Amino acid sequence: MAGKKQFDMDKALDAAMIQFWREGYADTSLDDLSRATGLNRSSLYSSFGDKDRLFLRCLDLYATRYGEKYEAALASAASDPVAAVRAFFDVTLERIADPELPDGCLIAQSAMAIPVLSPGVAAHAEQALDLQYSRLRTALKAGRLSDHDAETFAVHAAAVNQSLAVMSRAGASPAQLRSIVGVTIDALSQALRG
Predict the structure, then answer these.
(1) What is this structure's pTM?
(2) Mind telling me which SUPFAM superfamilies this protein's record contains (predicted)?
């Protein structure tokens, strides 16, 4: 049938997300995206727009996919904040350990690339990072931490979460990553006891 797209948009978007995740925004060319998705440049532009618009869609896909998992992990924060934060980190550690996925985190990579991103893409990357922080802050407030402590631990946990992605890319072992998480969990446990 004339005019009908002959490819799966979701699969193409997922392939583009993996390409950006693997190589980063600046190091991903349109040729790379074409190879990853199996689409020529013309099809990429007509389906997704320019590189910035495609990247924004990929960042949104990533944030939604893992954001839902983070939300589920933090759902028990009111009754057991320590277990909820541990489950939050488990989402990241499971993603890092998945051999089918690139190392690191698309949001962490995007945050590190903010100086070379267009203002609109940079703002979007900052929003994705802020969402993780606000998700943690809300859960920790529900978990009986004072506003100040919830704020402090949310910033810390978000920073630790992003550092796990960076450390995994740098070759840290699963045991090292778990020990990093352990320090944060121990500190949170102590704060809740205090």
Answers:
(1) 0.89
(2) Homeodomain-like, Tetracyclin repressor-like, C-terminal domain
Domains of the chain: 50-193 (1.10.357.10)
144: alpha, beta or left, given left = phi > 0 and alpha = psi -120 to 50? left
The structure tokens 């893409």 sit at 121
How many angstroms separate the CA atoms of 44 and 53, rounded? 11
Q: Are 66 and 80 spatial neighbours (Cβ–Cβ below 8 Å)?
A: no
Tokens at 16, concatenated:
């583009």
pLDDT reported for residue 3:
52
Q: How many CA atoms lie within 13 A of 156 on its CB side?
A: 16
The proportion of the chain whose per-residue pLDDT surpasses 90, expressed as a percent, equals 85
Contacts 24+ apart (CB under 8 A), 79-86: 80/143, 81/139, 81/140, 81/142, 81/143, 81/144, 81/145, 81/188, 81/192, 82/185, 82/188, 82/189, 82/192, 84/139, 84/143, 85/136, 85/139, 85/140, 85/157, 85/184, 85/185, 85/188, 86/181, 86/185
pLDDT value at position 66? Answer: 94
- Looking at residue 1, what is its pLDDT? 44
